[in-house]
């Protein structure tokens, strides 16, 4: 089994999954994406991947053990770390990535567990901000991200791409190309504004909201990048740029 399985997808997801995105707006499910008709000439592929050879892959329905073993090897752990949900692993990664540019990431499809504790804040209601030490809540996720080599990750991503493509089509995109979606999501996350501290909040109900309407209108993935802290976000952006360069065919 490859040591770096799932890393390419993990780079994208760690940007938001470790940030506890669903704690911000609740765990309601966004409407499913509409099924897209496949053109008679076949899907239009913008970012094709170079095929990778290797041993036969397990069926998607029976792939959890392989994915869990690969993640455990990556984490230098005897078993899958409790950071990850252990079931429907490939489908969770694919669905989470597809949801990142949306308003919410449905709780039932998230790939990683949220960090412990509540969002750390500072100040009273009229001057409420995200506390500087809130970024430390994501230390475990950032440590995993730091260990990722984008070139190796891209190679493994190509090796196991057929399972991810199948999961994407089953999600409601028959004939559509998952790598195109991954690249689009990376570009979307890279477009997240670089926000300086302090970041003001309002607390009108159970959930916090950004006081700045521009930030409040961001997607789930972009809000997560803002929330994990400026330094953490810079690390994520660098990894995303490096991965994008590996999975996009150069002219």
**Poorly predicted sequence stretches spanning 5 or more consecutive residues:** 1-5, 17-32, 34-40
CA radius of gyration: 18 Å
Give the averaged pLDDT, no decimals.
Answer: 81
Number of strands: 4
- Percentage of β-strand residues: under 5%
Per DSSP, the total helix count is 11
Strand order of the largest sheet: 1-2
Summarize the amount of helix as a percent range: 40-55%
What's the quaternary structure here?
Answer: single chain
- Reading the helices and strands in chain order gives HHHHEEHHHHEEHHH
Overall domain count: 1
What structural class do the secondary elements suggest?
mainly alpha
Distance between the termini: 32 Å
- Apparent shape: globular
**Major sheet, described briefly?**
2 strands, antiparallel
Describe this structure in words.
The protein has 251 residues and is mainly α. The chain has one domain. 44% of the residues lie in helices and 3% in strands. The chain has helices at residues 7-17, 22-25, 64-74, 89-99, 139-146, 150-159, 161-172, 178-190, 213-216, 220-227, 230-247, and strands spanning 121-122, 129-130, 201-202, 209-210. It has a two-stranded antiparallel sheet with strand order 1-2. It has a two-stranded antiparallel sheet with strand order 3-4. A hairpin with a 6-residue loop joins β1 (121-122) and β2 (129-130). α4 (89-99) packs across α7 (161-172) and α8 runs antiparallel to α11. The longest helix has 18 residues, at 230-247. It is globular. It starts with 6 loop residues before the first helix and ends with a helix.
